[in-house]
Amino acid sequence: MSLNYLTPEFKVLRDYDKCINCKVCMRQCANEVHSYDEDLGKMVADDYKCVNCQRCVVMCPTHALTIVKHPQVFRENANWTYDAIRDIYRQAETGGVLLSAMGNDRPYPIYWDKMVINASQVTNPSIDPLREPMELKIFIGRKPDKIELDENLNVKTKMPPQLTLNYPIMFSAMSYGSISYNAHASLARAAKELGIYYNTGEGGLHKDFRKYGPNTIVQVASGRFGVDREYLKTAAAVEIKIGQGAKPGIGGHLPGEKVSEDISETRMIPVGSDAISPAPHHDIYSIEDLSQLIYSLKEATDYKKPVGVKIAAVNNVAAIASGIARAGADYIAIDGFRGGTGAAPKRIRDNVGIPIEFAIASVDSRLRSEGIRHTISLIAAGSIRSSADIVKAIALGADAVYIGSAALIALGCHMCQQCYTGKCNWGIATQDPNLVKRLNPEIGYKRLVNLITAWGHEIQEMLGGMGINDIESLKGNRLMLRGIGMTQKELDVLGILAAGE
Amino acid sequence: MLKEGNIRIPSGCAISGIIDRSGAVFSGQIIADSIATMHDRSNGLGGGFAAYGIYPEFKEHYAFHMFYDNTKSKQETEELLKANFVIAYEDKIPTRKTESIKNAPLIYRYFALPKLEVLNANEITDEDFVVKFIFNVNKNVNGAYIFSSGKNMGVFKAVGYPEDVAEFYKLETYNGYMWTAHGRFPTNTPGWWGGAHPFNLLNISVVHNGELSSYDTNRKYLEEFGYSCTLQTDTEVAAYIFDLLLRRHNLPVSLAAKVVASPLWNQVERMSLKEKELYHSLKMIYSKALLNGPFSLIVTYDNGFIAINDRIKLRPLTAASHGDVIYVASEESAIRQVCKNPDRVWIPKGGEPVIAEMDQQNVSEIFNKKEVTA
Amino acid sequence: MKKVYAKEEVCVGCKLCEVYCITSHSRYKDVLKAYKFDSNRPAPRIVVEENRPLSFSLQCRHCDDAPCVKACITGAMQKDPVTGVVTCDTDKCVGCWTCVLVCGFGAIVRDTNNKIASKCDLCAESGEPACVKNCPNEALVYEGGI
Ligand code: SF4
Ligand code: SF4
Ligand code: SF4
Ligand code: SF4
């Protein structure tokens, strides 16, 4: 088929009054949009190839570049939208499943933005975190019902293993393979510096990063990549990945061409072979099977490390979470339908799963009604965009949050959603050595540390405003939230009152 | 407007407590005089007292004090009571006509013990059974409210200034070894008798000045242990937390204090190895029992009381001793009103409890640092 | 002495260092004006060497025993005895390119516009090498003894 029906999505605007023909843009665009035309004696651009990652825009020393949404329109049609038509052109041309990356970008309501936070006035003084202590430390792991002491006040209760977090924030699972070596290096080092944890994802743990073991959660997913004694021994906690918010019910596939020497060693698979994660774990077809794997991993780690389970937020999430709690997991991570990914079928990403806001609220309520909420930790994931989202997630009932996309944005990600192409111009979702080096871990880790410290300050400010000086007292404190512009049913599921009530 | 119990109402308050550690009893007039000094800290929308040692003749029986809105709720409750309890004595609680106390409900008391066959059928301890019974009546019998349920003790409360409440209930005629009092300043309630303090469950009573920012966290934690917080008041939540810690989890009072006003992490890190392990476990296990927000409260139990502030001391609390008698109150004036020359007066630090028990020598807590003397 | 060092593992080959080197040595200290209006636009004194994915930028190493200083026929090329910086006195330079021949690093460029030898002076005027300051990925560092 010679004629491509697709028109460019973006338009590269170059201000020739400002362009100095330095070719920086040309050297930086991995999509080869820019080139220098000797005959014209000036820079030109191929709009078709531009994905709006803005690398060139940011790098251009004279700010000569602007990328805009291409003005080309279809005849207005509220039903046959721009995307609907273009997706058909694409599939008619390729015959393939549409791929996409990062989280669900459809205009579903964002419930974080329909919730507002309380503050003290008169009857209860607000607390200034700059003058008064304000505790953010939390622990992830099972907690006993009660403490047992002997007559000399020695603790008889054996505490189950815990992760200690200086901030109620961790870096989500992102595998080496889906993101670059330098991205992992930045995350691992930042986690150590901050006293929190990063998660290896399902791609194994690179030998260079074993030194960050005390701040590492390792994942055991359906592909079981990179899992060996050393892997489990090095980690601070083990996480069984059942699903992921961006593609619930779907496995993973890292194409062979991305399986380099280094990745092959880390994943423990041959160079150039496809790394396939089956949709389910083929040894887990029911909750009893999950329990077996949980206890196998606990046994393998001498019951010294928390073993958690990560699931995607789906319709039945509350019952599933309750099952996981009873199956012996130390924590449950729930990933909402806006959670990011390196590659997912577009239809799955955009249509499967439920928002994390509802999932957290209903899981927390369910576990409470069963009287087991205090025994297990709950981690919310799936598009936490700011400290305010974190405060809301914790007030709804989470113990901590996982951030993935936000961390990548801190590292330079511009949300062009092209991670699956392997041509990330920001050196994040790529294995191309030319591109990987664009992410300097020295800079990357500092940016992450800055982000989390900044969010920490903001959380403290908000807590102080509520008259709380310990993040623990925010957990499940839904009275601190009010809803705006929601139906009564939505308010009920979230378990919050409407603003003004 | 929603009645209290269906809505949360913040309030400020005055509190006062007195114990004679030798066990000698004294009249309710003394505590009434003490709390009356702090008249301006309440607004007439709630006052009350808890008195320990006042029913020696029935000291083995649960003394239920009841508010009934009407005879129907009384009938309904009494049927339930009689089905489950053997009642040794019952009467209308004596009151006197008082100018400022209006709209009194029907106020009755019953001295009762659960029937053995009922306990056996339920296979639970009598205390657990009584708690279940109280929750059931308060939640399900419309218009009935059990506001006192301990042994050899009783709560007396009403909508009004505390000194008027004392007069209304003729408290000068009761003698107890330990008394607490409360004057309430709710911000917007029409005033409901059940909403006044002290709040009581079995032998634990709480008077409280403050507002818990952690209310919802605390409430949900308690619900996991079977408590139902029907009143939506901070005091109710505080009382249940102490019930959970002291009665059900057998924590010593001094450690219960360290749960509701837990030491900060950087303080824990500086402790000895043994204490560190203790406080690490305590803080982790009971993180949701931390009372956060400004408060001072007095919790009374069988043989003493504990008075404590939030850990950054956002509400007032002063303590004093004179011989065997220990006083605590929102303001020093309330103590000096009834004890002209105390041996010692001090202001406890945030989170540092004053624990006063019968025949106990050391008033301050075991891990206590130096107090600030007033 | 303090020198500019390249970290090739994070050099992205963008050549912004060259752009800013030119700007820093132009009479306009502004990128746009240096490129658009400076008729005597200086040549960059830093060059990015590339063999993708490897790339790094190179400029004068200010050698202890500098061959260019020894070879210079007019005495234009000088090493400051105090700071150790090797500079070319453009008033004295006659453009014979002898120094270009002897520099083992290829760090001296021919400024054909002005017919002089041009080389890194560590941005003596502004005190901070412009390439270091503007490298987007911290692939250049300015460090070492005094
Ligand atoms: S980076 Fe900017 S100035 Fe340089 S060639 Fe590209 S558009 Fe022109
Ligand atoms: S793909 Fe990125 S770098 Fe390339 S032209 Fe578009 S915005 Fe610039
Ligand atoms: S500016 Fe930095 S990253 Fe770019 S080519 Fe020069 S040294 Fe390399
Ligand atoms: S130009 Fe070359 S030879 Fe001369 S001082 Fe610099 S590095 Fe040394």
**pLDDT below 50 for ≥5 consecutive residues: which ranges of chain A?**
none
Name the chain pair whose interface involves the most residues. Answer: A-B, 41 and 46 residues
Q: What CATH architecture of the largest domain in chain B do you see?
A: 4-Layer Sandwich
Q: Cα distance, first to last residue of chain B?
A: 44 Å
| Multimerization state | heterotrimer
CATH superfamily of the largest domain in chain A: Aldolase class I
What is the helix fraction of residues of chain B, given as a range? 25-40%
Question: Strand order across the biggest sheet of chain A?
Answer: 9-19-18-16-15-12-11-10
Radius of gyration of chain B: 20 Å
Tell me what you see in this structure:
The complex is a heterotrimer of chains A (501), B (374) and C (146). Chain A is α/β, with parallel strands linked by helices and 501 residues long. Chain A folds into two domains: 10-96, Alpha-Beta Plaits, CATH 3.30.70; 138-498, TIM Barrel, CATH 3.20.20.70. Helices cover 30% and strands 15% of the residues of chain A. Chain A contains 15 helices and 21 strands. Chain A has helices at residues 24-28, 55-59, 82-94, 181-194, 229-234, 261-267, 287-300, 317-326, 346-351, 356-369, 387-396, 405-411, 433-436, 441-466, 488-494, and strands spanning 10-14, 34-37, 42-45, 65-69, 99-100, 115-117, 138-140, 163-165, 169-171, 198-199, 216-220, 237-241, 252-254, 275-277, 307-312, 331-335, 344-345, 377-381, 400-403, 481-483, 497-498. Chain A has an eight-stranded parallel sheet. The model of chain A has no long low-confidence stretch (mean pLDDT 95). Chain B has 374 residues and is of the alpha+beta class. Chain B folds into two domains: 15-54 and 154-370, Aminohydrolase, N-terminal nucleophile (Ntn) domain (Glutamine Phosphoribosylpyrophosphate, subunit 1, domain 1); 57-151, Alpha-Beta Plaits, CATH 3.30.70. Chain B is built from eleven helices and 19 strands. Chain B has helices at residues 28-36, 71-84, 116-122, 126-140, 162-168, 215-224, 234-248, 253-260, 265-269, 273-285, 332-336; strands at residues 11-20, 26-27, 47-52, 62-68, 85-92, 106-114, 144-148, 153-158, 175-176, 178-186, 199-201, 204-210, 295-301, 304-309, 318-322, 325-329, 344-347, 354-357, 372-373. An eight-stranded antiparallel sheet of chain B has the order 8-3-10-1-16-15-17-19. A five-stranded antiparallel sheet of chain B has the order 11-12-13-14-18, with helices on one face. In chain B, a hairpin with a 2-residue loop joins strand 11 and strand 12. In chain B, helix 6 (215-224) crosses helix 7. Chain C has 146 residues and is α+β, with helices and mostly antiparallel strands. Helices cover 21% and strands 21% of the residues of chain C. Chain C has helices spanning 16-25, 31-36, 67-71, 98-102, 130-134, and strands spanning 3-6, 47-51, 54-58, 77-79, 86-88, 109-111, 116-118, 140-143. A two-stranded antiparallel sheet of chain C has the order 1-8. In chain C, a hairpin with a 2-residue loop joins strand 2 and strand 3. The longest helix of chain C is centred in the N-terminal third of the chain and has 10 residues, at 16-25. The chains are: A alpha/beta (501), B alpha+beta (374), C alpha+beta (146). Chains in contact: A-B, A-C. The A-B interface holds A 120, 123-125, 127, 132-133, 135, 137-139, 143-144, 146-147, 149, 153-155, 157, 159, 162, 368, 371-374, 466-470, 472-480 and B 8, 10-12, 187, 210-211, 213-218, 220-221, 223-226, 248-249, 251-252, 255, 262, 264-266, 274, 277-278, 280-282, 284-288, 290, 292-294, 311-312, 314. The structure holds iron/sulfur cluster (4 copies).
